[in-house]
Design goal:
- It is a single chain.
- The chain is α+β, with helices and mostly antiparallel strands.
- The protein has a domain at 65-159.
- 26% of the residues lie in helices and 29% in strands.
- It has helices at 9-33, 65-81, and strands at residues 87-88, 91-92, 98-110, 119-130, 136-148, 156-159.
- The strands form two sheets. A four-stranded antiparallel beta sheet has the order 3-4-5-6, with helices on one face. Strands 1-2 form a two-stranded antiparallel sheet.
- Strand 3 and strand 4 (119-130) form a beta hairpin.
- The longest helix is centred in the N-terminal third of the chain and has 25 residues, at 9-33.
- The radius of gyration is 35 Å and the shape is elongated.
C-alpha cells in the first residue's frame, strides 16, 4: 500500500505567494502598456437657462394644519374615553398603546359661508394597537366625522 505524500504547508504558502506575484505583475504590465486617451470636451453652443416657476394646482381643499391636528387630537381623546375603541380582535388595550398608522381621506366641509368657525371634518384613519413591547399587534380602519359648532363646547364625533 502506498503512503500518501505529505506536502508541507510552507510549500502551499510559497506557491500562493508566487501566484499572487505573477498576477500582480501581469496586471501591472497590462495596464502600463495600454494608454487611455481622453478627448477634450468641445462646447457647441452656450445657452442661458431660465427657471420659470409654474404654480401647481392643488385639488385638495385648503386645510390648515391646525384643523387637521385638532381633528386627530379629538379622535384620540374619544378613543381614550370609549372602551369599544380600545378593543381590537377581542383584546383590550390602553389608550397609550393606540396610535394612528395612516391618515387616508381628509375632507374639510365648511357649513357656513361666514367666518363663524363652524365646519365638519371627514377622515379615514388606520389605527394600530401596540402590545407592551411597542410592536404592532392589531390594526383597525375607521371612518370618522367630526362636527365643530360654535354653540357647543365639545365637537360631535361619529365613528364607523
Amino acid at each position: 500500500m502506498a503512503q500518501p505524500i505529505e506536502v508541507s504547508y510552507w510549500l502551499y504558502i510559497l506557491l500562493s505567494i508566487l501566484f499572487l506575484l505573477l498576477g500582480v505583475s501581469i496586471g501591472a504590465l497590462y495596464y502600463s502598456t495600454h494608454v487611455i486617451e481622453i478627448e477634450k470636451p468641445t462646447i457647441i453652443k452656450e445657452t442661458e437657462i431660465k427657471v420659470i416657476e409654474i404654480p401647481t394646482k392643488d385639488n385638495r381643499a385648503d386645510i390648515s394644519l391646525s384643523e387637521k391636528d385638532r381633528a386627530i387630537s379629538d379622535f384620540l381623546k374619544e378613543v381614550a374615553e370609549d372602551d369599544d375603541l380600545l378593543t381590537c380582535s377581542g383584546e383590550e388595550f390602553d389608550s397609550s398603546q393606540v396610535q394612528i398608522s395612516r391618515l387616508g381621506l381628509f375632507k374639510l366641509i365648511k357649513t357656513h359661508r361666514d367666518d363663524a368657525g363652524e365646519y365638519q371634518v371627514n377622515m379615514d384613519l388606520k389605527v394600530k394597537y401596540l402590545d407592551s413591547y411597542t410592536q404592532e399587534k392589531c390594526y383597525k380602519n375607521y371612518e370618522v366625522s367630526i362636527k365643530y359648532d360654535n354653540d357647543r363646547e365639545e365637537p360631535i364625533i361619529e365613528i364607523e
